[in-house]
Structure of uroporphyrinogen-III C-methyltransferase:
Amino acid sequence: MASPKAMSIPPSRPGFVSFVSAGPGSPDLLTLRAESLLKSAEVVLYDALLEEGMQKLFPNEAECVYVGKRSGAHSKTQEEINELLVHYGKQGKQIVRLKGGDASVFGRLGEEIQILRSHNIPFQIIPGVSSVTAGISELNSSLTLRGVSRQILIIDGHSIVEDPKSASYLSSFPGTLVILMASQKVEIVASILLELGYKKETPIGLVEKAGSSSSQMQISTLGEAKEYGLKLSTDGPGILYLGETLRETYNLYQEHAKTISNLP
Ligand code: SAH
């Protein structure tokens, strides 16, 4: 029989996981609630962050584990992340699972919730600023525009590239299209969208490192994007926007480019 000393003692309080949205990059785009939870965390499991300032908010005494992925390079598999959540949850820790942008947008949140539910570990989700809204702000534009765009469709680039046929419904979508995980394959995405029936004059914007101090943006037309691509100017994440709501920004950009080229 095991001696009482060898038996593991259950934690005196249950563990708790806060899925905290980190926002797109800059720490001043964190919510106040996110900041306060971060400051009192015992464990922080964090994704790739664009600015170092965010890490300064982690408590010195907290256990902080980087579990991020950037451009396909994964520091931990999803299974390993799930195991860490359960491991610390069972130890009775107050855990912050810090996710880029808004936790609920392409963040594998569903899988992590499922694993916690299956182990009866309680959790909460703190919403935040997604790159979807941060990027359109960098373009000085709006996702919706009265009389122009009353719908927004958010999609990942892989699903367009891997199965263009099943993306054919996009051709009749009348609103603003937002494409994540596609900045490295703009030419192929543009050529598929043109084949699906998008007009070559449709404005397309690319924003890299949106919501950070080193963000970059460019705007073109779908036709030009297919011909020449949109050259990446950073090694950070990028997001694409398509639709008539970008027309004014595009026109202003063209005007500006003309003025510059006319300078003696
Ligand atoms: N939950 C995140 C999205 C995670 S999926 C959010 O709400 O923003 C990862 C993709 O999001 C990247 O490939 C890129 O397309 C986009 N992305 C994330 N952060 C970004 C940023 N700061 N600027 C531009 N795109 C970003």
User: Anything to note?
Assistant: The first helix runs from residue 32 to 39.
